[in-house]
Design goal:
Elements: H1 2-8, E1 17-19, H2 22-31, E2 34-39, E3 44-49, E4 54-58, H3 64-73, E5 77-79, H4 87-114, H5 116-123, E6 131-133, H6 149-163, H7 165-170, E7 178-182, H8 189-199, E8 204-208, H9 219-233, E9 237-242, H10 262-275, E10 283-289, H11 297-300, E11 307-310, H12 316-326, E12 331-332, H13 338-343, H14 350-366, E13 371-372, H15 374-386, H16 397-416, E14 423-427, E15 437-440, H17 451-461, H18 463-472, H19 480-495, H20 530-557, H21 559-572, E16 574-576, H22 577-584, H23 597-603
Parallel strand pairs: 1-4, 2-5, 7-10, 7-11, 8-9, 9-10, 12-13
Antiparallel strand pairs: 2-3, 3-4, 6-8, 14-15, 14-16
Helix pairs in contact: 1-4, 9-10, 12-14, 14-15, 16-17, 16-18, 16-21, 17-19, 17-20, 18-20, 19-20
Length: 629
Amino acid sequence: MFIVLFLFLPATTPGEHETLNYSQFLANVSAGHVETVTIGANGQATGKLSNGRTYSTVIPAQAGQDFLTKLEASDVQITATVPGVSFGSQVLSFLILLSPFLIIGFLWYRMSKSAGGHLQGVLGVGRSRAKVFDAERPSTTFADVAGYEGAKLEIREVVEFLRQGERYALAGAKAPRGVLMIGPPGTGKTLLARAVAGEAAVPFFSVTGSSFVEMFVGVGAARVRDLFTEAKKRAPAIVFVDEIDAIGQRRSGTGAMVANDEREQTLNQLLSEMDGFEPAAGIVVLAATNRPEVLDPALLRPGRFDRQVTIPLPNLSERRAILEVHCRGKQLDAGVDLDVVARGTPGFSGADLANLANEAAINAVRAGRHVLLAEDFAEARDRIILGRREGSNVLLPEEKQTVAVHEAGHALVAVYSPTADPVAKVTILPAGQALGATEQLPAVERHMYGEDHLYDMLSVMLGGRAGELVLLGQGSTGAANDLARATELATKMVREFGLSSRIGPVGYPSGGSVFLGGGGAALSSRPFAEQTQAAIDDEVARLVKEAEQRASEILQDHQDVYSRLVALLLERETVDGDQVYALAGRAPPGGGATVSPEDALHLAGRGEPGQPGGRAASGSSPDTRTSAA
């Protein structure tokens, strides 16, 4: 294309040309061979001969009028402009000449850009994907992390080790190689790491566990090597690996098939870099996970992760401080008491509290206000726990009666049970999948649960079904969720807590994740015989039936109060806990309003009973059963 354009463009076509002296020019004029002449101001003259060729010559200044007369006599066309190609046409012609290369270059750029990922995978496959924070750091500091003073102290010490290592060297102390932060989702593990990056005076490398492994073999190990190589160049430095369980899972044990798994190679390289034959000096590894039970033991040993910092769900005072942080920039009404809001949000993580404050602000804007009221926080809490209340979800009259009977049964059994958690609110307004709710807020923060409290929990769970049997004479599908939760708690009491005299003090835990709730699968094979399973089933059924019987007896003994509470619910649809206690003739329980994190998970409709001394059993869950289908 370039050659064709060069030959046919007039600005680049050379053509046939002759250079004549003045005498030759005059001879051609006399012979009639000159057709045109263009005379320039400096005597340069060009033109065209009769044979089609072009010529150029120089006319002396002495030629004068006689020369022009001779040209006119020979019928030569005389002009005074300079013929030929202008500079602009030459530039345009060369742009046209270069257009094929420009088009091909543009297409090549587009193709290379679309295939950039593959090209990068081939050429830069072993490069680390870590982000380096050195000159430009996040604005987050430890002041933005409310509560968790112990955890912040341990993590802040890591920064001090790197900043002022000589202070610790005088005492013979060595900096920890790694700090592992574990805890439920949303408790602020990544936020703490971001605060370290904002306050550290050393380079900070941030990378996620999933960014190490891709489709190419050996990529993960190569990226780990490259990450620590870059960190060594900038030492002292901090390396933060978020969601480390993506590459740090337990390796195959004895009896497993021999496998060259890519993740195992990545883990092996990480183990070697942290504490191998040539350990990394001046590098501290921060890591975060909410699945510590799946991590490899070699990764958790001292010398690699010397410290394991647990970031639990916040308690009452910490929830109060976290709410203050998330309410910055929001205009709160004088009637908003953050202590009351914190009391009503047991089991909420930091992320849940941030969502609560944001939902309260959205609710205020929806109402045409820019000032947040206490009602906005209460509605936001109900929305998070139960779901949005839809006006279209209207119960039939007989369904409304059944729901009122059901929820009043839960509430009264809780009021008359000595160790049950206090009732905070009873409502028969449908929200989400719940047709009604009885909310209980623990009066004290529990870490262990006695047998009497667990029995009262079972009675409260079955209080709704017992109420239906007492007042209506029949049960309904609304108790399906209650029965499932009660059966689950009774099973744990028999299998794990050793609270059955028939089975004895034995424990058969069902497993599951530590921080992710009841998502773990049960044991693949039962560690007990079929007769033991039959005995467990009998004991679970006995506990559930006895709890229902106790609930029925309570409601029958206070049937007049029960009927008045049902009527009050049908009239007002929502009744506060103080009104329930006043109707029952009892004083509301006093004391603080805190709860263990695991206990409060059930309050938000996403927990499960645990075992005393570690994971606390729940006694504060609203009824979130689904409507009958």
